[in-house]
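ARCHIVE CARD
Drawer: 12
Card no.: 0347
Subject: one protein chain, sequence and derived structure
Cross-reference: see card 0346
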Amino acid sequence: MKSLVIKCGGSTVGKLSPSFFTELIELKNKHHIQPIVVHGGGPSISTILSSLNVETTFVNGLRKTTEPVLEVVEMVLSGSMNKHLVRQVMKAGGNAMGLSGVDGKFLMAKPISNAEELGLVGEIVEVNTELLISIMQKGIIPIISPVAVDLNGQHYNINADMAAAALSVAFNSPLCMITDVDGVKVGGSIAGNLSDLEVSSLIEEKQITGGMIPKVEAAVQCLTKGVSKVGIINGTSSDALTGFALNESSFGTSFYLEEVMKKSV
């Protein structure tokens, strides 16, 4: 069975209609495409941190993570947000299991390169694919919280886009990033396609900013490691997920490598 990694942004989760979860189940049962869902939880994390008077800041779209921040991150991501998505899949008639990257050492990590700025933020160094395969073989849709662990048992906050990219590479699976916007906006309109070189230029020119930076960087990272297809779509649009998975529509923004495109011409 082919797989499709689907990353749901934290600001989007609450806006997803029941039809989105029906599409997930149909992809698996009707089209024989195994969904692997990775989710964020940024807005909910920020709300709780604010209510607890815990300071939170961002560096290029990534949350600086201290020990108190990490406690809230895990509570939201591996708790309320994860179980909300599991519940929605079950309501739609499917079977789902929530899984943190810490569970069974599923996602192994190391500190991110600029850890002195970002604290306990990590990057994935290994994915335990066998663990996930054994779950999926039982007919279950995995819902993954992007918290990881190192060999010493230290937990790390992982940007959900980067976690999804690591899973996409590990399973050689297309990556679909679900947001509540129609794609990457450039010059007032949505870009249908962006190359890796265009992404770099647009970040440098500050046309791509904030939380969109890790998304487009994750997209390029996947392509450079052999993933065949990456896109950012609006998950609140009816049939957008199915259209992406089956190559039946051109929702959102797709990405490609400049060198690969040149060679194919």
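Annotation on reverse: The chain has a mean pLDDT of 92. The chain has eleven helices and 16 strands.
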